[in-house]
Amino acid sequence: MQRTLAPKAKRTTPLWVWQILGVLFLLGLWYLLTSVLKLWPPYVMPTPQLVWEELRYGFVPSENPNDGQLIHAVTGSLRRVLLGYAIAVGLGVVLGVILSANRTLRDTVGTWFTAIQSIPSIAFVPLAILWFGLNERAVLFVVILEGTLPITLAISSALLNVNPAVVTAGKNLGAKGLKLYTHVLIPAAVPNLITGLRTAWSFSWRALIGAELLTSNPGLGQVLETGRNISNMALVITTILMVGVVGGIFDQVLRRFENSTRTRYGLEVRQ
Amino acid sequence: MKKLLFTTLLLIGAASAQKATTVRLGYFPNVTHAAALVGLEKGYFQKELGNVKLSAKEFVAGTALNEAFAAGEIDIGFIGPGPAINGAVRGLPVQIIAGASNAGAVLVARKGTGIKSYKDLAGKKVAVPTLGNTQDISLRHILKEEGLTGKVTIQPLAPADVAAAFAAKQLDAALVPEPWGAVLENRGGTLVGNEKTVWRNGDYPTTLVIVNTKFAQENPELVKAFLRGHIKAVNFIKSNGPAAQASISRELLKLTKEKVDPRVLQRALKRTEITTSFNLDALKEYADLNKEAGFIRTLPDWNTLINPSYLNEVK
């Protein structure tokens, strides 16, 4: 840790302590409102204890057929989103490169991409069900669609914004055609690409949960729907927490990757 | 002491006088809810309620009706035993005060699947209106009896969407309440399980009348008035076949903007027993099956959940 800027007021307690305190405060508030003051009945707003119980049931299999369902739901959802995301990244890179290389395409198709990106993924679910059936492929379609667009747009704009001096230097050193891309342009676009990857992740994850809700494939979205169907709001809240935690962990990993890359490219000053 | 007396008087006053100026009813546009449809179409409920206004709202599934109940937006509802039990176990303030229909659910297979008996369901995809609902529990019971537990994919799907899913070959069969069974059969589906073979020789409740416990305690007279209307509707359906059919048809047309084929309606009605009573043993078995399926962990307290006193007083 080297400090290059003026030293800030020194924090005596580390950040993670504050983060834990924040969570404890929220838990305490929740406990106070639901368990102590009983502002709402548990079928409207369950207590932390009820949610904790659901969490335990969800992860500890027993003779009850629904116990341990969160393990299957999390692994099922992750498998689905990772597959969809991987395909989206591949497609997005290819489409982004093509788009950046062709001005006509950019002016025609490129503008639709931005428009499609503004449509919530859930709007595509009814169509996806008709095209692919009430199955996993319908969910994957929505996940891929949502993931591909931000990557395509990030790559094409990154490639267009590569410093002309870098391109000239590369050309002078003999890079042309495909080599110009693999040796000069794409490496130069990496920081933007990673930002695109992170955006694509959160888009894909949200699209997945929404599509699972509507198509009832075994996953977190479906557990949420089941919780609703059997009037179990504790299960609904437990599932929402799981969606947030899993999505958040991946986002953090990608964010670190993004920060380290940007630092490596000299775009961020490490503090 | 004076204060105590005053509060007591106030409480007595509250208990005897009606508080509500509106009775809010929830029901589904299904043949299994025929008593609600006819009661509304013929104005039976409103006539009995007199100056108190009846406001009726339609729902597509017990899930949504339970949510409206939880939010305090509905006072009286026609609902299946599955959601009624699930809601009660979570602490929803509901009481079952009467029956509305028995049987009236059938298992229909898509043409070309070769499904002729329950055994043929192995490895197939079968739809029910929602997970944990009445038909879902019946289906789980059938699968258990046939030794097919875990060998069939149970797909929650709104009954109105089943025909489209059949056409797209995305589903193999569906266990649905009437008139949807008759509609699917009319479009070429094969009847695999009729209303009697689905469960208990047809003696199982499909629709019950529930009331918000607090509303009932505060407005016992309104609950009784409503039940008088309910009895009239049930009796009308039982004794006036074609006229009841016409009444149901008119109400369904108003609600769904779709004219139901009279033959479909007739067949659907024949498979449904419209009644004010229900089989308590069957209801208890529902709860046991719900628990076995993992949807509830405790059984409801039957003494508080079932309250036949209002019905007994007006019968």
Automatic annotation (TrEMBL), chain A:
<feature type="transmembrane region" description="Helical">
    <location>
        <begin position="12"/>
        <end position="33"/>
    </location>
</feature>
<dbReference type="GO" id="GO:0055085">
    <property type="term" value="P:transmembrane transport"/>
</dbReference>
<dbReference type="Pfam" id="PF00528">
    <property type="entry name" value="BPD_transp_1"/>
</dbReference>
<feature type="transmembrane region" description="Helical">
    <location>
        <begin position="112"/>
        <end position="132"/>
    </location>
</feature>
<keyword id="KW-1133">Transmembrane helix</keyword>
<feature type="transmembrane region" description="Helical">
    <location>
        <begin position="138"/>
        <end position="160"/>
    </location>
</feature>
<keyword id="KW-1003">Cell membrane</keyword>
<dbReference type="GO" id="GO:0005886">
    <property type="term" value="C:plasma membrane"/>
</dbReference>
<feature type="transmembrane region" description="Helical">
    <location>
        <begin position="82"/>
        <end position="100"/>
    </location>
</feature>
<dbReference type="InterPro" id="IPR000515">
    <property type="entry name" value="MetI-like"/>
</dbReference>
<comment type="similarity">
    <text>Belongs to the binding-protein-dependent transport system permease family.</text>
</comment>
<protein>
    <submittedName>
        <fullName>ABC transporter permease</fullName>
    </submittedName>
</protein>
<keyword id="KW-0812">Transmembrane</keyword>
<keyword id="KW-0472">Membrane</keyword>
<feature type="transmembrane region" description="Helical">
    <location>
        <begin position="233"/>
        <end position="254"/>
    </location>
</feature>
<feature type="domain" description="ABC transmembrane type-1">
    <location>
        <begin position="74"/>
        <end position="254"/>
    </location>
</feature>
<keyword id="KW-0813">Transport</keyword>
<dbReference type="InterPro" id="IPR035906">
    <property type="entry name" value="MetI-like_sf"/>
</dbReference>
UniProtKB/TrEMBL annotation, chain B:
<keyword id="KW-0732">Signal</keyword>
<dbReference type="InterPro" id="IPR010067">
    <property type="entry name" value="ABC_SsuA_sub-bd"/>
</dbReference>
<dbReference type="InterPro" id="IPR044527">
    <property type="entry name" value="NrtA/CpmA_ABC-bd_dom"/>
</dbReference>
<keyword id="KW-0472">Membrane</keyword>
<comment type="similarity">
    <text>Belongs to the bacterial solute-binding protein SsuA/TauA family.</text>
</comment>
<keyword id="KW-1003">Cell membrane</keyword>
<dbReference type="GO" id="GO:0016020">
    <property type="term" value="C:membrane"/>
</dbReference>
<dbReference type="Pfam" id="PF13379">
    <property type="entry name" value="NMT1_2"/>
</dbReference>
<feature type="signal peptide">
    <location>
        <begin position="1"/>
        <end position="19"/>
    </location>
</feature>
<keyword id="KW-0997">Cell inner membrane</keyword>
<protein>
    <submittedName>
        <fullName>ABC transporter substrate-binding protein</fullName>
    </submittedName>
</protein>
<feature type="domain" description="Solute-binding protein family 3/N-terminal">
    <location>
        <begin position="22"/>
        <end position="255"/>
    </location>
</feature>
<dbReference type="GO" id="GO:0042626">
    <property type="term" value="F:ATPase-coupled transmembrane transporter activity"/>
</dbReference>
<keyword id="KW-0813">Transport</keyword>
<dbReference type="GO" id="GO:0012505">
    <property type="term" value="C:endomembrane system"/>
</dbReference>
<dbReference type="GO" id="GO:0042597">
    <property type="term" value="C:periplasmic space"/>
</dbReference>
<dbReference type="InterPro" id="IPR001638">
    <property type="entry name" value="Solute-binding_3/MltF_N"/>
</dbReference>
